[in-house]
UniProtKB/TrEMBL annotation:
GO terms for biological process: phospholipid biosynthetic process. InterPro entries: LPCAT1-like, Plipid/glycerol_acylTrfase. The chain crosses the membrane at residues 101-123, 143-163. This is Phospholipid/glycerol acyltransferase domain-containing protein. It comes from Zea mays (Maize). Belongs to the 1-acyl-sn-glycerol-3-phosphate acyltransferase family. Keywords: Acyltransferase, Lipid biosynthesis, Lipid metabolism, Membrane, Phospholipid biosynthesis, Phospholipid metabolism, Transferase, Transmembrane, Transmembrane helix. SMART domains: PlsC (SM00563). It holds the Pfam family Acyltransferase. It is found in: Membrane. Residues 176-274 form the Phospholipid/glycerol acyltransferase domain.
Length: 275
């Protein structure tokens, strides 16, 4: 879930063995190809043949390889089949749905009230988080645990009763930035409960009811994607908060949209995700 950022210098090192010719490396074929000339030195994959990773550059977008049969946005949700069994099951579970809805509303109310108290009187988020603001004081962070537990109750009301986790997150000192895929609205709620991270969000989200207050408590980094100055300021904030252990982790969704989780789509190009 959290990983350390690789050394940028290591990205230029070839990931293939010296026994692979540049032509085969560029085509992705590395099977059973050997040189038979004694004393011959294999050419580097980053030599005169060109950088095989050049397609990752901002200045050289990937080539158009034609339409793909894969659709990362199709979920295949089964259609409603209104038979007698389906109607009977729906009517039978109406009381359960009512209890879940009540739990959801109660969790929202308690979480919002705790967040409002935690932000009360804090100058850094009086209106909206300002650039260069300091980390949230310890007593306010402890108060935010009420909101984090409320977020877990919301997941419970959605049917996520038990969430199995593999491994443990790396310490914040080793992994200040968390990169995640984005399938639905569940991931932000889970990360809020699990890590209470700082997120990068559109500045229009500040005006949303409830949501604006919650993300201000997360010391959100606002960005206007259509403003170069705003993107540059967001990059500086990411670097500043990632470098200081007093701030929470920074959570990024580099795909920039939701998918069905079966495919990995291209990361968003821009200064934010270049960092």
């Amino acid at each position: 879930m959290a990983s350390t950022s690789p050394n940028p210098a290591s990205l230029s090192a070839p990931l293939l063995s010296d026994s692979i010719s540049p032509a085969h490396a560029a085509n992705g074929h590395a099977a059973n190809h050997r040189h038979h000339h004694d004393g011959a030195v294999a050419a580097s994959v980053c030599g005169d043949a060109g950088d095989p990773f050049a397609f990752l550059s901002e200045d050289r977008p990937p080539r158009d390889r034609g339409p793909s049969p894969a659709d990362p946005f199709r979920n295949g949700t089964p259609a409603w089949c209104g038979g007698a069994y389906a109607w009977a099951r729906t009517l039978l579970l109406l009381p359960v749905a009512a209890v879940r809805l009540a739990l959801f509303g109660l969790a929202i109310a308690i979480g919002y009230a705790a967040t409002w108290v935690a932000l009360r009187g804090w100058a850094d988020t009086h209106v909206r988080p300002r650039e260069g603001g300091g980390p949230m004081p310890a007593w306010r962070r402890r108060l935010m645990w009420i909101t984090r537990i409320s977020a877990r109750c919301i997941l419970f009301s959605f049917g996520y009763h038990w969430i199995r986790k593999k491994g443990r997150p790396a310490p914040r000192e080793l992994a200040p930035i968390v990169v995640s895929n984005h399938i639905s609205y569940i991931e932000p709620i889970f990360f809020f409960y699990e890590l209470f991270p700082t997120i990068v969000s559109s500045d229009s989200h500040d005006a949303l009811p409830f949501v604006g207050t919650i993300i201000r408590a997360m010391q959100v980094i606002y960005v206007d994607r259509f403003s170069p100055a705003s993107r540059k300021a967001a990059v500086n904030e990411i670097k500043r908060k990632a470098a200081c252990n007093s701030f929470p982790r920074v959570l990024l969704f580099p795909e920039g949209t939701t998918t069905n989780g079966r495919f990995l789509i291209s990361f968003q190009h821009g200064e934010i995700y270049r960092y």
